[in-house]
Design goal:
Length: about 450
């Protein structure tokens, strides 16, 4: 493919990834990490930039049509289970409600005064998600065209905001919070913060679109496809990394000017007010609102099509309506509650995502034997479930203490890594001992 094609696919990838979470989480992380923001960014970029890129490349490398086919290498039931979980996460359970609540926090709440009415969010969500439903129920090129204009506009606005933060800095970096107290801890916490973007999961879901675009250019060999996707994806990864770095910088400098905030949305909104005044805040508000709207419509459409095709029940518009209602009900809990409740689910989903990506690249090494997939994903599943349960705050008693004492990295939320490695080794031994035709797994 020529250079223009790389740039076009890279821009498409960036537009697919860039959404509400990519704005608010680096800002929140920057404010919390303070002087250790550089180390936190290092970890954040691993899971928020590198992992989504690897996810896109992995599906292209696998030669599979979509996420369900890839995950079905473990088993058909697991393939269906994991795909449904991923779609619900990037759809009505987390990502769609987040677009509505982020829009409210940035585009509406700052202009309602210090004590907005408790009805403000519910009323706003009715209009925001209602309009999203109307657009998603009648798919057209309107949303695509708006999206193509909004992404550059949003980037231009952010670039001006970033430039102003250098001309008139908001303040000095503050002392890091306990979660980012040292360089090592900050880097690990940054890795976990990167989960919140949901981009690695979205990469697996949207990979079919990207891979098909490369195939349409005449590339057919899986290795060449993954190589072309990587080259194009590097553009998207670079853009994401640049945005993260400078938004985190603004967050790290903002404490003196605006104080500590619960989420990244008010950090961006109030920082823009300090740097630009009311006009700048309103401009950012309008662009973020419209960008979140197009993301919401895209996710509603994507999820409705998947469940309609998978179940064979309900019509497209009925799925859109159902997911709109679910998104509204979850959105009523507010942005902070959505973010907090998302974390345990992501602590469960992401280890499975990383392990699956690793197995895709190692597929030829172990001959694609199902037993290796089963053992690796099985043990990863166990610890991913433990991570999710413990993140909720549920005590596992003696089992929890034993895991902390004997499982490396468990106290950092990465105890699934040694379990995945052990599962992979057991799978290789099983492969060597049990002939393929006789293997139960």
């Amino acid at each position: 493919m020529d250079n223009k094609r790389f740039i076009a696919i890279g821009s498409m990838l960036f537009a697919l990834f860039f959404g509400a979470g990519n704005l608010i989480f680096p800002a929140a992380m920057g404010q919390a990490s303070g002087g250790n923001v550089g180390w936190a960014l290092l970890g954040f970029c691993i899971t928020g930039v590198g992992l989504p890129l690897l996810g896109i490349v992995a599906v292209g490398f696998s030669g599979c049509r979509d996420l369900r086919e890839v995950a079905s290498r473990v088993s058909p039931m697991y393939g269906l289970f994991y795909t449904v979980v991923c779609y619900m996460a990037i759809g009505p359970c987390f990502a769609i409600p987040r677009t509505g609540t982020v829009s409210y926090e940035i585009a509406v709440a700052p202009f309602l005064g210090p004590d907005p009415s408790s009805w403000a969010l519910p009323i706003f969500l009715v209009f925001f998600l209602g309009f999203s439903y109307w657009l998603a129920a009648s798919p057209s090129k309107l949303v695509d065209r708006i999206g193509k204009m909004l992404t550059p506009a949003l980037l231009a606005t952010l670039l001006v905001l970033i430039a102003m933060s250098f001309i008139t800095p908001l303040g000095e970096f503050q002392e890091p919070s306990k979660a980012y107290a040292t360089a090592t801890v900050a880097a690990v916490q940054g890795v976990l913060d990167g989960y919140n973007t949901l981009d690695a999961i979205a990469a697996l879901v949207f990979s079919t679109l990207v891979v098909n675009t490369v195939r349409e250019a005449g590339v057919t060999d899986p290795k060449h496809i993954s190589g072309q996707v990587f080259k194009a994806g590097f553009i998207a990864a670079l853009l994401l990394a640049v945005v993260y770095i400078f938004i985190a910088k603004i967050g790290a400098e903002s404490v003196t000017a605006i104080g500590l905030k619960d989420t990244g949305a008010p950090i961006l909104a109030e920082s823009s007010q300090v740097l630009f005044g009311s006009f700048g805040a309103m401009l950012l508000a309008v662009i973020v609102l419209l960008a979140c709207l197009t993301t919401s419509v895209g996710l509603l459409t994507c999820c409705a099509v998947f469940f309609m095709e998978t179940t064979g029940r309900l019509k497209y518009r009925q799925w859109v309506a159902l997911f709109t209602v679910i998104s509204y009900l979850i959105g009523l809990f507010g942005l902070k509650t959505i973010i907090v409740s998302t974390i345990p689910v992501l602590m469960f989903i992401y280890p499975l995502c990383v392990a699956l990506i690793a197995l895709i690249f190692l597929h030829s090494f172990f001959g694609g034997r199902q037993c290796v997939y089963v053992w690796t994903m099985g043990l990863t599943f166990v610890m991913a479930l433990v991570n999710g349960i413990e993140t909720v705050g549920f005590s596992l008693g003696a089992l929890g203490e034993a895991l902390k004492a004997y499982v490396p990295l468990h106290t950092l939320g990465l105890g699934w890594v040694p379990f995945a490695i052990v599962g992979f080794v057991i799978g290789l031994v099983w492969k060597a001992v049990v002939p393929q035709k006789a293997a139960a797994a």
